[in-house]
Q: What sequence folds into this?
């Protein structure tokens, strides 16, 4: 591990983990760092120059070439772009490290297709500031969280009944089905290792592969959602009043609650005009895999980014509200979620979650890897 003067040891450790174990940077590679200049001045694309310079410096110590591209691309709802200057720069790189909140692999079809077609490794670095690079979230070993993701996948094989409940009123029953290639979601079987599935690499490691369900009915009650779309719905990603969905045979038949529920209903109605009736489909859920994905406000004042991070916590299960495909008319993937954090989930005879606790954290393979890093954050928060 290198150590650069002026870079805190915590950041050297976390950046090294990203570059060596996630991006797998090699000597001679061309590495492109992309960030929005408006992110320096309070926009949703939160970033700081210090974090970018630290990462570029550490790339160079590994014998690779680091180039930094600052873009100025104001976001327009339903007109999101893959900036041509970014596309041109990516055409000449081996690895792209993406610090953008707005330029996302899942939502923007043109960006996703370019990454997949060119097979360029795209690291989505969500620890976009110097404070986040020094957090327990970023310092948790990538190897450990990757193993949690893999171990949590093993139960999802074949066709199995599931039941999901929580203390807030969620009660869903249905059937898990085999992995299918979905719009916006690359990869193979649920249990495939990240580096074998696609060149898309979130860092810190983020969520379990999406799980397809059928014959599902019941109630789903949630009080927060993924923040990329909440800003367009016009609500905070943390709700004042819970939203209650009634589900029948994998369709949303009713939405109840307070102001957030009303806003969600209006937004889905407007999206129905763009992408069709599948805005009411309810056929995917999955969950976070990172046991340290919790950030204090002083470490990240931006509420949108805190919710992005907490979405990946190993206690966080989320469903997809709607699953319409992108099209030539609307080349984006609608990715609205409902998130719960204290669920009990049983798949077949296996208890996957116990009141918000992901039981695979007790697997010997997971504990063995945690033991390799006694001085790093691991499976249990320090008091």
A:
């Amino acid at each position: 591990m290198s150590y650069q003067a002026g870079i805190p040891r915590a950041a050297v450790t976390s950046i090294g983990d990203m570059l060596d174990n996630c991006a797998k940077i090699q000597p001679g590679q061309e590495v492109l760092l992309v960030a929005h200049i408006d992110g320096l001045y309070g926009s949703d694309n939160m970033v700081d120059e210090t974090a970018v310079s630290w990462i570029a410096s550490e790339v160079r110590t590994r014998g690779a070439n680091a180039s930094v591209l600052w873009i100025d691309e104001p976001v327009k709802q339903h007109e999101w772009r893959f900036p041509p200057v970014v596309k041109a720069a990516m055409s000449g790189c081996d690895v792209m490290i993406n610090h953008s909140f707005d330029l996302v692999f899942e939502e923007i079809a043109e960006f996703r297709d370019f990454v997949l077609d060119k097979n360029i490794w795209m690291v989505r670095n969500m620890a976009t500031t110097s404070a986040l690079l020094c957090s327990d979230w970023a310092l948790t070993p990538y190897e450990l969280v990757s193993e949690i993701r893999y171990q949590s996948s093993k139960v999802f094989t074949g066709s199995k009944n599931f039941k999901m409940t929580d203390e807030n009123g969620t009660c869903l029953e249905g059937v898990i089905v085999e992995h299918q290639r979905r719009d916006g979601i690359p990869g193979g079987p649920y249990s495939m290792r990240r580096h074998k599935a696609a060149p898309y690499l979130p860092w810190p490691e983020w969520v379990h592969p999406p799980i397809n369900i059928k014959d599902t009915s019941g109630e789903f009650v949630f009080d927060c959602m993924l923040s990329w779309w909440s800003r367009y719905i016009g609500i905070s990603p943390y709700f004042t009043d819970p939203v209650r969905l009634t589900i029948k045979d994998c369709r949303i038949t009713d939405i109840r609650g307070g102001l957030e529920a009303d806003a969600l209903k209006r937004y889905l109605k407007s999206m129905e005009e763009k992408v069709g009736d599948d805005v009411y489909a309810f056929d995917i859920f999955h969950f976070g895999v990172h046991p340290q994905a919790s950030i204090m406000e002083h470490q990240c004042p931006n509420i949108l980014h805190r919710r992005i991070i907490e979405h990946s916590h190993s206690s966080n299960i989320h469903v997809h509200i709607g699953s319409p495909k992108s099209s030539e008319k609307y080349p984006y993937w609608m990715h609205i979620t409902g998130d719960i954090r204290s669920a009990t989930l049983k798949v077949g005879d296996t208890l996957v979650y116990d009141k918000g606790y992901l039981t695979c954290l007790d697997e010997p393979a997971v504990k063995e890897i945690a033991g390799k890093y006694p001085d790093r954050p691991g499976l249990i928060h320090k008091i």
Notes: Residues 155 and 347 are 7 Å apart (CA to CA).
